[in-house]
Amino acid sequence: MDNNLLSSIKIKVLSQLNKIELNNNEIIIYNHIINNINFNNYKSVSTNKLSDVIAHIISEKILSSRHKIYSNESFIPNSKKNNINKNSDIKEMDNHTRLKSVIGNVAENTSSKYISSFIQTDNKNSDLNEDVNVDIDTNINSLFNNISLNKLCYKYNPSSLYIHQYVVLDSNYRDVSQDKSNTVSKFVWNYSANNNIVNGSFFSNIELTNIVGINLYQPIIPYLASMDTDAKRVSILIEELSAQSFISSNGRHSHFILRPSYTTATTSVELNTEDNYDHTLWFNEPFIKLDKMTITFGNPDTVLSFTVGAFDRFIIEMEFILLKQ
Questions:
Q1: Do both 184 and 103 map to the same domain?
Q2: Residue that is last in its domain, among 156, 175, 193
Q3: pTM exceeds cut of 0.85
């Protein structure tokens, strides 16, 4: 076919396809398809009508692919796409963004080995006959690994799945059965579903399950001279959550390492949380359930022991960030 005639047909096809408002990704796919057409298969079609026929076939394939993409609510990218805002609501994603999230990165690479993964062609004819099938769904598994919509939200808009629970640990209501004869190094509280707090317990409105983060509010704890080391820090550990924690050079685990603010002639010391990046410790994997809390303090590498009955009452306030079921 004459090159001038071929160019003329391509321009007419693209002009007609503009009626369905192709985005950049669809134009790239269009270019790949039309550049691989075997025009000999259309000898029976008059030259004047050829552009109409080809435009009609391409538009049907693209519109069909759009419909399949828009109706699929379960896909998820394997990595973040620049066009998806981390704080946006996935359910309100517009159709153009949905389409780009599926074919965007692939379509931006114009090599045929990427484009062909989205354009399934008949083995005998790699042109636009009726056997050609532009099928995005066949690639959903390879692109999105069958990850659920909840996991999609957790990856791109995690705060939409968070529940915040607030807990108070009062030393006067700890489980004293864990105390030794005259010293205490582990302060223990058990979960209570009843807000009428009894000895040995702490309360929250719901059970602490699927824990993804902890926020510690600035606590005041009993002062010990052994806290005042050259490190000038006090560490706090929740033993039940030690699987995801900081580990010092001597093996001491901790979740928070805070700067004490010493005041002369006082029996308590305030632990400053301002050194923390955002005051919140985030976990890589959610903790399934927390029905007991055992708190230890360190200086920061060595666990501190307090004399029973000789230290001030203290209160620790925590915010637990839970993942919705």
A1: no
A2: 156
A3: no
